[in-house]
Design a protein that fits this description.
The protein has one domain. The protein is built from no helices and 15 strands. It has strands at residues 3-4, 52-56, 61-68, 75-82, 85-91, 106-113, 124-130, 133-139, 158-161, 166-173, 181-187, 190-195, 208-215, 227-232, 238-242. The strands form 4 sheets. Strands 1-11-12-14-15 form a 5-stranded mixed sheet, with no helix packed on it. A 4-stranded mixed sheet has the order 4-5-7-8, with no helix packed on it. The chain is globular.
Length: 243
């Protein structure tokens, strides 16, 4: 396989972290946790007005990708639905001691849960508002989705394509120990993401969703058929079928 360094990573997590297995992920809130790789290269400023989206967690959750500071990932504040149209409001993270935002431009993934009644097997439109920016994001339905919005997650990793060479990966684990990409390889219908393993890292015992953006080189992988992503290291060893 052709080896490619990771182009972009970003992570975010829902504010109400899940303390017990079996909890139901509800729509709304995200208090994002973020890692990124700004050294991968600049992002065109014109792309700041363009959002992307994908279905995750077998149709229970979604990701919205925006462009901005890599250290200040927007959080999902409100989510409502009317039929297959889902209205999403993103806000900047807040806290008692908010961290300064770097002035770089990088893709960031914000995670939210689809409201009950939305059918993940049919096409979905996300009407996204983030500050003064608004955009409609059309997401293809996933005929293979077996999850129901509003139902209990199974805490399994999932992944979905965002464009021809980039995908968003959802993993579950400590909100204070985010997946850190070491390297990324991909060719044809397979790819491998290597994660940093730090046995000395102290992690909280919560269970939170973490989104990581992976970008392969242009024309390196095929996104028009079955694609298997292998996860290595960081306690994430396994395989994920990219939807």
């Amino acid at each position: 396989m052709t080896s490619r360094r990771l182009l972009v990573t970003a992570s975010s997590a829902i504010a109400a972290v899940l303390l017990l297995a079996g909890c139901t992920v509800g729509p709304g809130g995200a208090a994002p946790y973020s890692t990124s790789d700004p050294s991968s290269g600049p992002v065109d400023a014109d792309d700041r007005n363009d959002f992307e989206g994908a279905l995750l967690d077998d149709g229970r959750m979604f990701a919205v990708v925006t462009v901005g500071s890599s250290t200040c990932v927007p959080q999902v504040d409100q989510v409502t639905a009317e039929g297959q149209t889902v209205t999403v409001t993103l806000v900047d993270p807040e806290g008692e001691s908010p961290q300064p935002c770097t002035k770089d431009l990088a893709p960031r993934a914000s995670i939210g849960a689809l409201p009950e009644g939305v059918d993940p097997k049919s096409d979905i439109t996300l009407n996204v508002t983030y500050g003064e920016l608004t955009d409609d994001v059309d997401i293809d339905g996933d005929p293979a989705a077996t999850g129901t919005p509003g139902s209990t997650t199974e805490f399994q990793p999932s992944a979905a394509w965002l464009d021809d060479d980039g995908l968003v990966l959802l993993t579950w684990g400590s909100s204070t120990c985010l997946p850190q990409i070491e390297s990324l390889e991909g060719a044809g219908s397979t790819g491998t993401a290597y994660f940093v393993t730090d046995e000395n890292q102290v992690c909280t015992m919560d269970m939170a969703p973490r989104a990581t953006l992976l970008a392969f080189g242009e024309d390196t992988v095929e996104d028009d058929g079955p694609f298997t992503l292998t996860l290595v290291g960081g306690g994430l060893d396994g395989t994920v079928e990219v939807r």
